[in-house]
Amino acid sequence: MIEEYYFAKSVSDALFFLKENQGQARIIAGGTDLLLDLADEKKHAAKLVDITHISELAEITVEENFMRIGAAVTHTQITRSPHIQKHFPALAAASGKVGSLQIRNISTLVGNIINAQPAADGAVALSALDARIEMMSEGSLSTLPLDDAYLGTGKSAVNSQAQLVTGVII
């Protein structure tokens, strides 16, 4: 049962909330899979920290040599992004195939990765693009090749009770 639903104001705020709640809190953005897993008791959390109000995590940014997709970017945003359509059409197409329109409007690409399911359309396209995930934990930023984020079906190398994936780098 969820006791608290907290809207983080910044990445450091979200990480502080996780640390303060020592394994009792989880990161949530779309939550389309997480909420089902919590209801089915496949995962446990007394508190959720929502990252959707952190503006830098809800953006797609284009740099000279890479594109960064924030952790709170939805599949619909990816499908509609002119930059992704132009440079990574397979990712735009894959994100357009995720669930229904209602699911695509809520679910996030990073959530698709963290859920670690082999049929994750967006994650499969990212694997082909040799993407990396960017994550924060206790003040340090690190990157991890996308393929290394999977430890098996439904098992992620990211601990969403202590780490925050801030985005995907392509």
Summarize the structure.
With 170 residues, this protein is an alpha+beta fold. Helix content is 32%, strand content 25%.
Write the layout of secondary structure elements.
Layout: E1 4-7, H1 11-20, E2 25-28, H2 34-39, E3 47-50, E4 60-62, E5 67-70, H3 75-80, H4 82-87, H5 89-95, H6 101-106, H7 109-114, H8 121-128, E6 132-137, E7 140-145, E8 150-152, E9 155-156, E10 164-169
Helix pairs in contact: 5-8
Q: How would you describe this protein?
A:
The chain is an alpha+beta fold. The protein contains 8 helices and 10 strands. It has one domain: 2-Layer Sandwich (Uridine Diphospho-n-acetylenolpyruvylglucosamine Reductase, domain 3). Helices cover 32% and strands 25% of the residues. Strands 4-5-10-6-7 form a 5-stranded antiparallel sheet. A hairpin with a 2-residue loop joins strand 8 (150-152) and strand 9 (155-156). Helix 5 (89-95) runs antiparallel to helix 8. The longest helix is centred in the first third of the chain and has 10 residues, at 11-20. The mean pLDDT is 92.
